[in-house]
Task: inverse folding
C-alpha cells in the first residue's frame, strides 16, 4: 500500500488542481503532436518522391527544430506557473510532517503522470493527424495526392526521446525549486513579493532607444541584400527592447494611472490598477512574451501568405515568356550574326521535331557585370574588389545596345559612345556619370524599372550606343577569377503546349544545344519551374500556418495562466471589497478595466512592431520575386485582423475564468 501512496497523492494533486493541469497537459499534448507531424513530414516517402521533395524535407526539418526549442522554452515557462501555485500545498505537506524527499517523490510522480499522458496522447494524435497534414501540404504545393496511411516509427522514437528529455528537465527543475524553499516560504509564497515595485526609468529609456534603433534599421534599409543580414539584428533588438519596456515601462504606466485621480479613484479602476502595480514587474515578462509571440505569428502568416498567394504573379513577372534560353557567347566579338544564326538554327530544328511554332518571341543580346558601386565608380577587377565588406553596394549591371532597345520598345533613341540611359531596380543611383575602370559613361537620363528585367535583386541597367563600347572590360577578371563581362544571347518564347509537352521540348532543346553549340547556356520554363516554385512557397506557407497555430495557442496559455494565477492572488482583495459593498457587476467592470489595460497592450505593440518591420519584410520578399506591394499590404492587414479576432476571443474566455475565481462562483 505504501508503494502506491505517492502515486495516489500525485494523482489527487493533479485532479484537485485540474483547472491548472488540464490546460497544461493539453499544451504538452499539442507540442508533442506538432513535433511528430513535422518529423513525419520530413521523412515522408510521398514528400521525398516529389521533384523538390528535398526542399520540403529541409523546411519540415527546420520546423521540427523550431518546435523542439520552443517546446522546451514554453513548457519551462508554463511549468513555473504550476509549481508556484502548488508551493502552498507543498508547504502544508511539510508542516504536517512530510520531508522534502517525500515531497520530491510526489513531484516526481506528478511529472511522470503528466509526461506519460502527454507523450502517448501526443504521438497517437500525431499519427492520426499526420496524414491529414500530409494531404494539406500536398494540396498546398499543387501536386497529386496519395491517400495511403503510414506510420514512421523512427519519427515516433525521436519524438518520444526528445520530449522524455524535456519532461525530465522539467521534473528536475520542479524538484530543485521545491527543495530549495523553506516550509514558511512555501506557505507564504502567494504573498511573497508584495513590496511595491519602483519604475526603473533607466531600463525603460534604454528599451525605447533600442526599439527606435531597430525601427530605424527597418525603415532605412534600401538593399534587399542588406536586409538579409540586418533582419536578425533588428529582431534581437526588438525582443530585448520589448522585455525592457514591459518589465519597467508597465510599472511606470501603473504609477502614472495611480497619479491620475479622475481615473484611479473609480470602482472599476481602483482595485485593478492597485493590483497590477504590485505584480507588473513580475508579470511584465509574460506580457512581453505574449507580444513577441503575437509579432512572430503576424510576421510568419503575412509573409508566407504573401509568397503563397502571390506565387502566380511572381511566376508571371519572372517569365514574361513561357520559356527562355540564354547562351553565353563568351565575349563581345562572338555576338555576331553568324554565331546567332547558327544558334537559332538549332532552336528551329528542335521546334520542328516537336511540331511547335514559337509565339511571342523575344530575341536580343545583352551584357552583364557584377560589381560594387562606390559613388560614381564600379569596382569590378580582382585587385580592387573589397569582397563581402561592400555587400550593401553589390549590384547586377546589365547593358543593352540602343539598336536592341529601339527594336524592343519601338523607340528611336540615339546615343554617343560615352552616353547611357540608366534604369534602377531595388536600388538608387544619383550620379551624373559612372566609370568601370578605363570606361566612363555620362548618364543623360534616369528611370526606374527596366521593362525586361527579371532579376529581383538590386540592379542597374544601361542602354549604350553599342555593346562594343564595353571592349575595355572584355578581358578583365573579377575577384574569383571569372570574366568580368558576361555576354548573352536571349531567346524567349511561348509554346501554346501543355506543361508536360513543354517540359519535353525544353529537355530536347538542352540536349540539342549541348551537342551542337560549344558555349555555356541555360534553359528554363514556367512549366518546369512551377512545381519547384509551389513546392517551396507551399512548404513555407504550411510551416507558417503550423507554427502560427502553436504560437497562438502558446500565447493563449500564457494569458490563461496569468489570469488564473492573478485571480487566486486577487481573490482575497475582491472578497474584502464585496464585504464592503462591491457588487458582481462592479467586479466585472474592474476585471474588464484590468484586462483591457494590460492584455491588449501586447496586441497594440505587436501591431506597432509589424508596421515598422514591414519595410524590412518587403525587401526580403522581393528577393523571392514578389513585386505586388499593394497585395502584400492587404494580406498583412488581413492577417492582423484575423489574429486580433482570435486574441479578442482569448480575452473573453480568460476574463471569464478570472471572474469565476474572484467572485467566489468556484
Result:
Amino acid at each position: 500500500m505504501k508503494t502506491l501512496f505517492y502515486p495516489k497523492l500525485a494523482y489527487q494533486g493533479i485532479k484537485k488542481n485540474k483547472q491548472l493541469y488540464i490546460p497544461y497537459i493539453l499544451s504538452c499534448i499539442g507540442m508533442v503532436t506538432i513535433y511528430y507531424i513535422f518529423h513525419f513530414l520530413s521523412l515522408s516517402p510521398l514528400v521525398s518522391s516529389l521533384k523538390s521533395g528535398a526542399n520540403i524535407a529541409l523546411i519540415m526539418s527546420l520546423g521540427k527544430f523550431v518546435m523542439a526549442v520552443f517546446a522546451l522554452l514554453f513548457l519551462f515557462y508554463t511549468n513555473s506557473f504550476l509549481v508556484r501555485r502548488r508551493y502552498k500545498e507543498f508547504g502544508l505537506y511539510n508542516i504536517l510532517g512530510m520531508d522534502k524527499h517525500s515531497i520530491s517523490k510526489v513531484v516526481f510522480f506528478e511529472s511522470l503522470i503528466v509526461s506519460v499522458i502527454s507523450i502517448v496522447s501526443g504521438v497517437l494524435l500525431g499519427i492520426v493527424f499526420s496524414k491529414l497534414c500530409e494531404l494539406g501540404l500536398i494540396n498546398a504545393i499543387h501536386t497529386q495526392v496519395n491517400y495511403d496511411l503510414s506510420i514512421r516509427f523512427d519519427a515516433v522514437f525521436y519524438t518520444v526521446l526528445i520530449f522524455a528529455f524535456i519532461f525530465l528537465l522539467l521534473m528536475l527543475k520542479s524538484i530543485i525549486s521545491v527543495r530549495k524553499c523553506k516550509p514558511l516560504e512555501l506557505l507564504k509564497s502567494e504573498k511573497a513579493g508584495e513590496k511595491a515595485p519602483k519604475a526603473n526609468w533607466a531600463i525603460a529609456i534604454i528599451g525605447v532607444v533600442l526599439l527606435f534603433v531597430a525601427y530605424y534599421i527597418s525603415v532605412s534599409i534600401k538593399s534587399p541584400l542588406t536586409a538579409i543580414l540586418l533582419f536578425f539584428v533588428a529582431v534581437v533588438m526588438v525582443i530585448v527592447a520589448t522585455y525592457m519596456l514591459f518589465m519597467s515601462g508597465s510599472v511606470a504606466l501603473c504609477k502614472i494611472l495611480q497619479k491620475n485621480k479622475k481615473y484611479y479613484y473609480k470602482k472599476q479602476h481602483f482595485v485593478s490598477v492597485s493590483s497590477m502595480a504590485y505584480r507588473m514587474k513580475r508579470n511584465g515578462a509574460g506580457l512581453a512574451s505574449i507580444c513577441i509571440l503575437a509579432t512572430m505569428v503576424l510576421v510568419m502568416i503575412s509573409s508566407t501568405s504573401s509568397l503563397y498567394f502571390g506565387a502566380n504573379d511572381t511566376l508571371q513577372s519572372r517569365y514574361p515568356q513561357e520559356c527562355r534560353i540564354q547562351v553565353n557567347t563568351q565575349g563581345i566579338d562572338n555576338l555576331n550574326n553568324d554565331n546567332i544564326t547558327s544558334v537559332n538554327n538549332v532552336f528551329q530544328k528542335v521546334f520542328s521535331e516537336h511540331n511547335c511554332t514559337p509565339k511571342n518571341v523575344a530575341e536580343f543580346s545583352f551584357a552583364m557585370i557584377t560589381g560594387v558601386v562606390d559613388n560614381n565608380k564600379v569596382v569590378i577587377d580582382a585587385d580592387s574588389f573589397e569582397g563581402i565588406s561592400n555587400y550593401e553596394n553589390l549590384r547586377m549591371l546589365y547593358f543593352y545596345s540602343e539598336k536592341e532597345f529601339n527594336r524592343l520598345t519601338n523607340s528611336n533613341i540615339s546615343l554617343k559612345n560615352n552616353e547611357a540611359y540608366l534604369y534602377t531596380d531595388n536600388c538608387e543611383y544619383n550620379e551624373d556619370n559612372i566609370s568601370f575602370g578605363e570606361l566612363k559613361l555620362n548618364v543623360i537620363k534616369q528611370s526606374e524599372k527596366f521593362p525586361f528585367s527579371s532579376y529581383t535583386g538590386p540592379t542597374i541597367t544601361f542602354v549604350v550606343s553599342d555593346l562594343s563600347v564595353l571592349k575595355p572590360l572584355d578581358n578583365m577578371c573579377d575577384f574569383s577569377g571569372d570574366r568580368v563581362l558576361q555576354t548573352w544571347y536571349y531567346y524567349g518564347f511561348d509554346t501554346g503546349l501543355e506543361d508536360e509537352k513543354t517540359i519535353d521540348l525544353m529537355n530536347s532543346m538542352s540536349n540539342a544545344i549541348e551537342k551542337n553549340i560549344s558555349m555555356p547556356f541555360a534553359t528554363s520554363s514556367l512549366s518546369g519551374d512551377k512545381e519547384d516554385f509551389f513546392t517551396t512557397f507551399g512548404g513555407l506557407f504550411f510551416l507558417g500556418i503550423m507554427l502560427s497555430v502553436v504560437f497562438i495557442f502558446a500565447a493563449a496559455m500564457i494569458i490563461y495562466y496569468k489570469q488564473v494565477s492573478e485571480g487566486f492572488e486577487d481573490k482575497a482583495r475582491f472578497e474584502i471589497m464585496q464585504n464592503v459593498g462591491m457588487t458582481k457587476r462592479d467586479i466585472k467592470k474592474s476585471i474588464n478595466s484590468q484586462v483591457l489595460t494590460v492584455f491588449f497592450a501586447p496586441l497594440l505593440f505587436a501591431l506597432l512592431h509589424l508596421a515598422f518591420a514591414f519595410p524590412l519584410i518587403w525587401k526580403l520578399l522581393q528577393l523571392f520575386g514578389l513585386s505586388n506591394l499593394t497585395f502584400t499590404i492587404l494580406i498583412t492587414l488581413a492577417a492582423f485582423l484575423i489574429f486580433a479576432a482570435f486574441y479578442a476571443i482569448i480575452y473573453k474566455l480568460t476574463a471569464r475564468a478570472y471572474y469565476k475565481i474572484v467572485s467566489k462562483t468556484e
In short: The chain has three domains: 1-192, 198-319+526-666, 323-494. Residues 323-494 form one domain. The first strand starts at residue 323 and ends at 328. The first helix runs from residue 5 to 16.
